[in-house]
């Protein structure tokens, strides 16, 4: 399938503006209760964050907002980059869009751009060559070690991280806002007065906290019945193994480190201990894998 054909397939609103309401992510965002829709920023953004925190849904609801504002549909390009192999294809994508679809100002939304080899140098080239002039660019990628280090020097694009919701946001979304200001815990008297005001909500807060611990702060888990983590386990397992392969690390070593950490859960353990009690042998190797674990969220 040519890049133009793929663009037409991924951007059905070019033909029928109302088709955005039939998009799976948009339908879900509009149908759930309560709604959790973030308005689009007014600047170009590189969106980072773990899987399943809502990056693709955010991009799709941004498209919905643009269309409802009256933006011409062909000025909005969305593309899921999972099908692109390398930087040449990414550059060709924007070249074809500018040549055949829209040569004027635009909104360009590139989802999972980190699937593309040398994606960062591709974006720099596109900025420098003028393909992204007068364009708002939203680029998303699931956080990996390499992605978190990337910068686009001199380019007008801000880096923003989507994290799972903290407890306050989780409560506001799924249980309703209480309407009290944030309390400074270092001010004892202020903290006490605030705690007293919260006391009528204690049962509800405890129930919400237990649910938050069970589900985590991932928006998707708030809208599913049963065990909410089943839907995330395979996604995260595959994602971590994929990141290991991209970074040239060994799955065997990674598994040994993780298993030993689990064995010593709630107890102190050193890099030397892990190295001696596994086939790894080197505490430096253990340290590098521990750093990798931390940076992969």
UniProtKB/TrEMBL annotation:
The protein's name: AAA family ATPase
Matches recorded under PANTHER family: AAA+ ATPASE DOMAIN-CONTAINING PROTEIN, ATPASE
One family name in Pfam for this protein: AAA_14
The AAA+ ATPase domain, residue ranges: 41-166
InterPro entries tied to this protein: AAA+_ATPase, AAA_14, P-loop_NTPase
Source taxonomy: Archaea, Candidatus Marsarchaeota, Candidatus Marsarchaeota group 2
Species name: Candidatus Marsarchaeota G2 archaeon BE_D
